[in-house]
Amino acid sequence: MFWHPQPGPRAEGGEEEDEPLLPEAHPSFHEELLQQLPLLNLSQEERILAEEIIGSIAPNGYLREELSAVLQRTNARIAEINAEHLATFFQSGKQQNPARQHALDPVVAHLVLHRELPPVQLLHPLSLEQAEHLLRRLQRELEPPGIAARTLQECLLAQLETRPLRTEPERWAYRILKEAFPEMSRRTWREVLKRFAGELTPEMLKEAREVIRRLNPRPGGSAPPEIPLQVTPDLLVSHDPETGEPQIYFNDATLPPLRVNPILNQLRRLPRHSPQKQMPLKSRQILRMDYTAAHTLVSVLRQRKETLLRVMSAIVKLQRELFESGPQHLKPMIYADIARETGLDTSTICRAVANKYVQTPFGIFALKDFFTEALPSLEGDEGVSVEVVKQKLRELLENEDPQNPLSDIQLARRLHAMGYKIARRTVAKYREEMGFPPIWKRKALQ
Question: How many other CB atoms are there within 10 angstroms of residue 150's CB atom?
Answer without folding.
Answer: 18
